[in-house]
Design goal:
The structure is a single chain. About 50% of the residues lie in helices and about 25% in strands. By secondary structure, it is an alpha+beta fold. The chain is rod-shaped.
Length: about 130
């Protein structure tokens, strides 16, 4: 008889436990989703910068073609609100490189934090070889 009385007093404790833990679980889930989205945007920026640098470093290509390639790559992934795409030639130790630098402001919803994302793609300029 004592065991049955003990079971009756314990009724509903699972619901209370879940109600206490649910906000924490939802918060962790939202944080994981936001971090995954941030990483996806950063990886897309890096891929676009590298693609633009490779396109601009071809022997018969111009810097504008590299910029256009990077912008097209961003547009294909749905990123149209970037801050800047800068393509330029640089030289280090006698070797000429083409650099594509992409900047984007990223705001994390629900927190109000703004991050400045930066991606730099670099490729050896074939015209200098």
């Amino acid at each position: 008889m004592r065991f049955a009385q003990f079971q009756l007093r314990d009724q509903g404790s699972n619901t209370v436990g879940f109600a206490l833990i649910a906000p924490l679980l939802v918060g962790v889930f939202l944080a994981v989703v936001q971090i995954a989205n941030l990483l996806n945007v950063q990886i897309t920026l890096i891929a676009a910068a590298n693609s633009g640098a490779r396109a601009a470093s071809a022997f018969d290509a111009t810097l504008m073609e590299g910029t256009a390639e990077a912008i097209q790559r961003l547009a294909n992934q749905g990123i149209v609100d970037y801050e800047s795409v800068i393509t330029r030639r640089t030289s280090q130790n006698g070797i000429t490189f083409v650099e594509v630098k992409i900047t984007k402001n990223y705001q994390i919803p629900w927190v109000g934090v703004k991050l400045n994302l930066l991606a730099l793609g670099k490729s050896v300029d074939e015209k200098s070889l």
